[in-house]
């Protein structure tokens, strides 16, 4: 097959995507023509990162409703995952320890200044020599580079998604982190991102939405990422903005705007610019406890009497600090609701609660959940039913999800397998489908980055878009096919699997036979006829790996692959092609 055929194949794939406790009642899948096995596969597609071999039958055996409620409970033991995570020492640390062990750029500069390596404004001598001197000093004094923390952050996400028994909790952790996005690219918040996911996101993913909103609002990662930590009420000071210097003193509207536009009401939620400004005023004084040992404010707070601070209206909750002396105490009106003067810390709580319970928020959040779990264009009737549950349960996320999965709209065949996997979802589903053992998780992160999803590094507060058009184009499909081939051929360091074991070591009679057998293993309970027909020319082409790799010009390992006629290499090529195929991209 010539290179042109490879491009045409990927264009054809692009075209197929069309950019554009037990409960009393059983899940209504039978009404829509699903067998129990097909319904179980559908639940696993949407409420986990993909089915593992044999898991469809296991779900049918225990009962679909039982499995779903088990996932809602999110309390299955995870000994295997915990063993994999045991080597990552940073994952149990609190923010105080992290801040004073994994230094950010500002702390490194202050350290270098104290040690005389740099002047106040410039590096002395050669930059390369400076970096080496800093490295030696950090090592001597027990400090670690921030990139080491980020690597462990990435590794734990890959392993948790692949191996946690509480799959729905991990799927929702990914969803809500993206909804309340923060980025390690911002120096001020990068030390806090792991505890943000661990302490603010994961424990609240199936609780009350207002609790999740408040947990994110008060976490240092969000306070620093959207600049509320530096937002204060000082009369006659200009308003700070994204371009303002870090030490600018004044009102900062960044968080106030995004909490309404992205986190609660939605862009069409009925608020005005005046509301943005007033919400910002209500949240002045919401900041971060000074954790760095060399921070002057830390020494000051440690000398003050906590009882005196409390009498003055200060609030300290973990690493969150409300500074009453920096709060705007004037009366306010937000979304036509009046807030009296001198509201203090409680005023911010009341404002966020109002936003969490607003009708626009209810519709916005239910639509976003339906878009993630059902369809890029969810039906109005589904959203209406989810909204009713949201309102009647005080924003109970678990109850809203239960309403969604029991709704007929969830089971319409027209939306089955409509959603397209993000690169992260694709990679993790490949690990789960093949029972792969991941020893070097960061290698899979590198592949996600190649395919367009460098998670934890997305700079915009919007998070990654959740639509097929964001992920599917010719270049992306080439990269996905390249990943499938490298993955199945075990050319990704630290990722191993036994493909023959998936078929109980029964050797397929031919490549075409292997294509049929492994399509059913990797993507159970689907109609594979169209996909197999599309893949047969690739399976029959011995040089497909080299050609696709050359067309994509990305993976050096794939370019060096030399296939022989052996069963093992044939099987790797077939499985790699299936993983890179259109059907595997769908969930």
In short:
With 587 residues, the protein is mainly alpha-helical.
Overview of this structure, please?
The structure is a single chain. By secondary structure, this protein is mostly helical. The chain has a domain at 3-19 and 419-585. Helices cover 55% and strands 4% of the residues. The chain has a 3-stranded antiparallel β-sheet. A hairpin with a 2-residue loop joins strand 4 (315-317) and strand 5 (320-322). It is globular, with a radius of gyration of 26 Å. The model is unreliable at 18-22, 236-247 and 552-566 (pLDDT under 50).
Topology of helices and strands:
Layout: H1 3-17, H2 36-47, H3 55-62, H4 64-73, H5 79-85, H6 95-99, E1 102-103, H7 105-114, H8 127-140, E2 144-145, H9 146-163, H10 167-179, H11 193-201, H12 209-217, H13 220-225, H14 254-263, H15 273-282, E3 286-288, H16 296-303, H17 306-311, E4 315-317, E5 320-322, E6 332-334, E7 337-339, H18 344-357, H19 359-373, H20 380-392, H21 397-406, H22 408-411, H23 423-433, E8 437-438, H24 441-450, H25 468-471, H26 474-488, E9 495-496, H27 499-502, H28 511-522, H29 529-539, H30 544-552, H31 556-559, H32 567-579, H33 582-585
Parallel strand pairs: 1-2
Antiparallel strand pairs: 3-5, 4-5, 6-7, 8-9
Helix pairs in contact: 1-26, 2-3, 3-4, 5-9, 9-23, 9-24, 12-18, 14-15, 19-20, 20-21, 26-30, 26-32, 28-29, 28-32
């Amino acid at each position: 097959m010539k290179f042109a055929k490879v491009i045409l194949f990927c264009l054809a794939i692009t075209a197929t995507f069309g950019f554009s406790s037990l409960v009393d009642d059983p899940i209504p899948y039978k009404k829509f023509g699903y067998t129990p096995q097909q319904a179980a596969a559908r639940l696993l597609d949407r409420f986990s990162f993909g089915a593992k071999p044999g898991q469809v039958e296991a779900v049918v055996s225990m009962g679909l409703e039982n499995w779903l409620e088990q996932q809602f409970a999110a309390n299955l033991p995870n000994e295997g995952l915990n063993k994999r995570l045991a080597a990552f020492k940073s994952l149990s640390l609190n923010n105080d320890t992290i801040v004073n062990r994994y230094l950010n750029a500002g702390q490194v500069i202050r350290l270098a200044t104290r040690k005389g390596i740099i002047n106040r404004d410039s590096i002395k001598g050669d930059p390369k020599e400076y970096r080496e001197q800093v490295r030696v000093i950090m090592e001597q004094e027990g400090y670690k580079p921030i990139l080491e923390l980020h690597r462990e952050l990435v590794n734990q996400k890959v392993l948790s998604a692949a191996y946690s028994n509480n799959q729905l909790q991990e799927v929702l952790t990914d969803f809500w982190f993206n909804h309340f996005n923060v980025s390690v690219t911002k120096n001020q918040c990068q030390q806090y991102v792991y505890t943000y996911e661990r302490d603010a996101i994961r424990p609240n993913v199936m609780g009350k939405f207002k609790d999740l909103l408040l947990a994110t609002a008060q976490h240092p990662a969000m306070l620093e990422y959207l600049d509320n930590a530096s937002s204060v009420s000082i009369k006659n000071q200009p308003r700070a903005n994204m371009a303002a210097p870090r030490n600018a003193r004044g009102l900062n509207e960044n968080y106030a705007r995004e909490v309404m536009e992205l986190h609660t009401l939605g862009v069409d939620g009925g608020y005005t610019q005046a509301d943005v400004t007033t919400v910002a005023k209500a949240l002045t004084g919401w900041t971060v406890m000074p954790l760095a040992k060399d921070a002057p404010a830390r020494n000051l707070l440690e000398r003050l009497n906590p009882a005196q601070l409390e009498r003055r209206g200060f609030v300290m909750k973990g690493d969150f600090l409300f500074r009453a002396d920096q709060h705007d105490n004037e009366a306010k009106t937000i979304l036509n609701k009046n807030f009296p003067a001198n509201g203090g810390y409680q005023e911010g709580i009341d404002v966020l609660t109002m936003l969490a319970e607003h009708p626009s928020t209810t519709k916005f959040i239910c639509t976003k959940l339906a878009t993630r779990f059902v369809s890029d264009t969810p039906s109005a009737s589904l959203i209406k039913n989810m909204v009713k549950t949201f309102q009647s349960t005080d924003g109970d996320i678990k109850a809203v999800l239960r309403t969604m999965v029991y709704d007929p709209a969830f089971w319409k065949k027209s939306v089955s397998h409509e959603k397209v996997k993000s690169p992260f979802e694709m990679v993790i589903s490949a690990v789960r489908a093949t029972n792969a053992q991941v020893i070097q998780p960061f290698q899979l992160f590198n592949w996600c980055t190649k395919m367009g999803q460098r998670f934890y590094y997305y700079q915009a507060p919007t998070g990654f878009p959740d639509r097929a058009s964001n992920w599917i184009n010719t270049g992306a499909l080439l990269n996905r096919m390249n990943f499938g081939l490298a993955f199945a051929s075990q050319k990704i360091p630290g990722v191993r699997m036994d493909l023959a074991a998936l078929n109980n070591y029964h050797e397929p009679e031919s490549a075409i036979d292997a294509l049929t057998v492994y399509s059913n293993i990797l993507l159970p309970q689907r109609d594979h006829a169209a996909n197999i027909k599309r893949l047969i020319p690739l399976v029959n082409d011995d040089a497909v790996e080299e050609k696709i790799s050359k067309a994509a010009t990305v993976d050096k390992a794939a370019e060096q692959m030399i296939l022989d006629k052996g069963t093992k290499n044939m099987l790797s090529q077939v499985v790699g092609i299936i993983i890179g195929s259109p059907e595997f991209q769908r969930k």
